[in-house]
Design a protein that fits this description.
Length: 91
């Protein structure tokens, strides 16, 4: 089996996972407010905002990993196709 179809499958898995993480982050941050809480009246909003920030902190490392792996796989696949094109035209 050639390595390119396997790379495409792995790339698709990581790219779909990255998209799902980005969608999840988007749904979490939809209700996030950048506010400064000065009084105790807004304690409930402060707790909700802290919960959102904790959720974002949990998924942030995964976003970085999946973004990096997807980028590396994309560069690898493009490099393989470029190398094949160079071999065809110049050899």
């Amino acid at each position: 089996m050639h390595v390119v179809p396997a790379l495409w499958i792995v790339w698709a898995v990581f790219a779909c996972s990255l998209l799902l993480l980005l969608l999840y982050r988007g749904t979490i941050t939809r209700y996030e407010d950048d506010q400064l809480f000065l009084d105790d009246i807004s304690e409930r909003q402060h707790k909700e905002n802290d919960a959102i920030i904790r959720k974002l902190a949990k998924i942030q490392p995964y976003l970085k990993i999946f973004t990096g792996v997807t980028s590396i796989l994309t560069a690898t696949i493009v490099g393989i196709y470029a190398w094949d094109a160079i071999k065809i035209f110049y050899m």
